[in-house]
Specification:
Blueprint: E1 7-11, H1 30-33, H2 35-40, H3 43-48, H4 50-61, H5 72-82, E2 86-91, H6 97-101, E3 108-110, E4 113-120, E5 126-128, H7 129-137, E6 152-156, H8 165-176, E7 180-184, H9 195-202, E8 206-210, E9 223-225, H10 229-244
Parallel strand pairs: 1-2, 1-7, 2-3, 7-8, 8-9
Antiparallel strand pairs: 4-5, 4-6
Helix pairs in contact: 5-10, 8-9
Bound molecules: zinc ion.
């Protein structure tokens, strides 16, 4: 391919499975294996049912994210940034593994928030998740907000919650202002994230998809790579950097 100078990347759960974090909709996905977990992830049930909240805090305490380390695919995107080619790194993931790999925080657009912070649903207080989980470990099964006593949850977008408008605006801007859009490890079935591919194409970018399974956008892509992400993405990034010379 001829040399792209501005690359926006969208990443989904598939980039973090090599780091030990299961995806949601793949064959071994969290929602696939436990549809009830998906139902419990709805914001209205979380607010209405203390038992759903207690189960959620136990799940956060045992979340694989706490032991996860970035992998070669995360590191490849750091290389892309250091080569001056990265316009923005949009992610559906809540694990902060891009930042831990070394991606500049200002380059990372977290569509679905982060599990590494907690938020109060009443007063919007944000606190480090570690502080709240320490309270769970100490025996509080549904720790209330330390400021107002309100219900807390992870600082992530649950089913039934809209994406934050300024975050979505930044993602749209990144999709519309690149000359190559790369979607990695995402099923491209969840909107508005999936629609970013269409936005990028409409505004003149080429599209490359790196994913184990077929996606609804494959027929619009200039290149579809179905190989394992841990090898395919570093190879693609090397190719882009070499082409940019
Ligand atoms: Zn509060």
């Amino acid at each position: 391919m001829n040399e792209p100078t501005s690359v926006s990347v969208l990443t989904g759960a598939g980039i973090s499975t090599d780091s030990g974090i299961p995806d949601y909709r793949g064959p071994q996905g969290v929602w696939t294996k436990d549809p009830q977990a998906a139902a419990n992830a709805d914001i209205s049930r979380y607010v209405a049912d203390p038992e759903v909240r207690r189960a959620s805090w136990r799940a956060r305490l045992g979340h694989p994210v706490w032991d996860a380390r970035p992998n070669d695919a995360h590191r490849a995107l750091v290389d892309l940034e250091h080569a001056g080619l990265l316009r923005a790194l949009i992610t559906q993931n809540i694990d902060e593994l891009h930042q831990r790999a070394g991606s500049a925080p200002e380059k990372v657009i977290e569509l679905h928030g982060t599990v590494r912070r907690a938020e109060c649903l009443s007063c919007d207080l944000i606190t480090p998740m570690g502080e709240v989980l320490a309270r769970v470990s100490a025996g509080e099964d549904d720790p209330p907000c330390p400021r107002c006593g309100g219900i807390q949850k992870s600082n992530t977008i649950s089913f039934g919650q809209n994406l934050k408008s300024e975050v979505l605006a930044a993602a749209l801007d990144a999709a519309r202002s690149c000359d190559l859009f790369v979607a990695v490890g995402t099923s491209l079935t969840v909107h508005p994230a999936a629609g970013l591919c269409g936005e990028a194409i409409d505004f003149g970018a080429r599209l490359v998809i790196v994913n184990a399974e077929p996606t609804p956008y494959d027929s619009f892509a200039d290149q579809v790579i179905n190989e394992p992400i841990g090898q395919a993405l570093p190879a693609l990034v090397k190719e882009l950097i070499d082409a940019a010379g």
